[in-house]
Amino acid sequence: MDFNHINTYINQLQDDFIRNGLMSDEFLDFMNENKLPMDQFFSYYRCAIMEIETKFNVLNEQFSLRYDRNPIESIKTRIKSMDSLIRKVRDKNIPLTLEAIEENIYDIAGVRVVCSFIDDIYTLADSLLSQDDIKLIRRKDYIKNPKSGGYRSLHLIVEVPIFLQNEKRHMKVEVQLRTIAMDFWASLEHKLRYKKNIPEAELKAISEDLIDCANQSSKLDERMMEIHNHILSLERTQ
Q1: How far is residue 226 CA from its own chain's centroid?
Q2: Fewer beta carbons within 10 Å, N or C terminal of the chain?
Q3: CA 35 to the chain's CA centroid
Q4: What is the pLDDT of residues 62-96, one digit of tens each?
Q5: What are the pLDDT digits (tens) for 193-215?
Q6: What is d(CA 235, CA 233) in angstroms, rounded to the nearest whole number?
Q7: Which of these is catalytic: 103, 159, 174, 235?
Q8: Which DSSP symbol is given to 145?
Q9: Active site residue 208
């Protein structure tokens, strides 16, 4: 089967998914019955994102005052789309209830923190996790142990309380911490990896090129951190 036939087959599977999944009676009934609860459900995750983002902004301000520099270059946030969420529910065979979704899917809310140096990633992560209202659920270090394709980042699943009018809820948020170089590589890799109509014979070569770029990016991060630490040591001796 050539690439065009594979692509046609994948498109057909996607059409079948939409018709049998997103347009199924079960899904439509779920949406009709849970319109208001769904709105509240996503609002809880938006509140959790605000809590985590505020914590990082406070840490960044503290670093600025204490060390005269900001370790955070940018903070990006996102809520998983309905389409992506339902696909994950189907893939993991999770019951179609809000309670089951909240219990089993940890990355509905996401915060990505882009840092200047590798050391900043671990310092910020430790500072966040040392706060008494933050509970660590899961930690995956793709910096010390990169994925086979070259991806690097520190992933944390944390639980943070949000305070509502009459209740307190504990919400899970995925936090990704990475350097500028890691973020640049991951963004371009995502765009290139999912380009359509690439001949199958070229895919292996492209994957190898991306891994090589990831290795060069890693060396750049290490070199920049070495220069940064050298400058700091010089400042201390003055």
Answers
A1: 27
A2: C
A3: 26
A4: 999 988 889 999 999 999 988 888 888 888 888 88
A5: 776 677 777 878 888 899 999 99
A6: 5
A7: 174
A8: S
A9: no
